[in-house]
Amino acid sequence: MNRVTTGNVSLDLILAGGFPENSINILMGLPGTGKTILAEKVIFSNAASDRPALYLSTVSEPLDKMLRYLQEFDHFDPEKVGESVFYHDMSDVLREGGLQTFAEQVIELVKEHDPAFLVIDSFKALHAFSVSEAEFRKTLTYLMTSLSSLAITSFLVGEYSSDEVASLPEFAVADGVMELVLNKVGVKDARYLRIIKSRGSDFLSGEHAFKISASGIDVFPRLQTPPTAISYELVNKRFKTGVEVLDSMVADGFWKGASTVVFGPPGCGKTLLGLHFIFKGIEMGEKGLIATMQENPTQLHRIVSGFGWDLQEAIDSGMLELFYTSSVDVYIDEFVSQVDVRATSSGAQRILIDSLNDLEASAPSAARFRDYMYSFVQAMAARGVSLFMTSEVKDLFQSSIQTEFGISHMSDNVVLMHYLRQKSEIARAISIIKSRGSRHDPGIRRFEITSRGLSVGDRFEHWDAPYCHGE
């Protein structure tokens, strides 16, 4: 089956290569969801002199206004307008001649331009010009029969709601239906798209996040658990965290390709332990990726240099990639997708995510967070990539690893960093709560933060142990 690219690699992936050629597709969603932007990106990505596109606007938005805003996007090519992309305003035809005249005029324009691509925006607006449901169905049948007999890939854009899919006749005749939605997540807007229908064609199901940008749309396909998750070759090697005593507490280190989550209160050294993990890997020839929402690059450079590491040298040598995004602007779909892409392209063998709390806050629901994290952890395990994640707990002394999103049971290793107090003295402590498939020392050990990073010492004796429980 031949495909029509959407102009976006990720969206093509969702559609198994793009829209099927010569299909009739509905792009649906409430006003402001990005339907027109997507339709225009598709036609400008495909239109050529021998395969022109015909864009018909009805009564939803004035044509001159549409063209004015279109110029703000990278996909707009003014040289194509009037040469391979043809616009026609059909509002007067509808108002003066009605629905049947509109349909006849559409077919005349199709014969005149012989397009490979056709957009009618808004198609739903045609309902307002129908005298009866019978007339609309008759006109719809005439249009769809005519278009189906021609080599045209058509896009019917409309402000449809989800409950209209089962009741309006155009959805029955359409080969494909894509819904775009705009949700409120806290103070942020979150956009998602999903494929409702794709006749005779495979597609990636579920909700996929996207953003409107200068390139039109940036799509972040829903992360799926890899098909190899049930059976894949395990790497029978251990990795070093860079903290010698901690490595000795877990049978000479954690398994390579394992996931580790470090819980702890503010200021206890979670990020520092993660940096040990990354720079030890670089020392051993393993490329690393730091994905952070905590410290911006300038702050991280200062922190890293304070412990004797050279962040810039590691980046310049190609051994380290730094990915920072503000926790205010982060979306879990985009973040996880970016980490996945960057890890693959850079060949990273160790990944530090700092922190899970920011990711959980960016998710529209706890269920979506769990799904994403499970799929991501499994994907990294299947590739043999070692994953290190930080998570902050609230209490300084009564440390608890009970979380709302259940991350500890997904992880192979759980490390707890906390504080102990004895009368007027406060000390930092570290313990290993869980190490899947490995013998480990369950003792609580003292550690200090020095100019060279973390230094783990002996076990505590006769101190008040923290209250700690699992999920």
Description:
The chain folds into two domains: 3-220, P-loop containing nucleotide triphosphate hydrolases (Rossmann fold); 238-459, 3-Layer(aba) Sandwich (Rossmann fold), CATH 3.40.50. The strands form four sheets. A nine-stranded mixed sheet has the order 5-4-6-7-3-8-9-10-11, sandwiched between helices. The protein has a nine-stranded mixed sheet with strand order 16-15-17-18-14-19-20-21-22, with helices on both faces. It has helices at 9-14, 35-46, 63-70, 91-113, 133-148, 170-173, 244-248, 270-283, 297-305, 311-316, 332-346, 356-362, 366-383; strands at 3-4, 19-20, 24-28, 53-57, 85-89, 117-121, 153-158, 176-185, 188-198, 208-213, 216-220, 238-239, 254-255, 259-264, 288-292, 320-324, 350-354, 386-392, 413-422, 425-435, 445-450, 453-459. It starts with a strand and ends in a 12-residue tail after the last strand. Helix content is 30%, strand content 27%. The protein is built from 13 helices and 22 strands. β21 (445-450) and β22 (453-459) form a beta hairpin. α4 runs parallel beside α5 (133-148) and α11 runs parallel beside α13 (366-383). The model is unreliable at 467-471 (pLDDT under 50). The longest helix is centred in the first third of the chain and has 23 residues, at 91-113. It has 471 residues and is of the alpha/beta class. The relative contact order is 0.11.
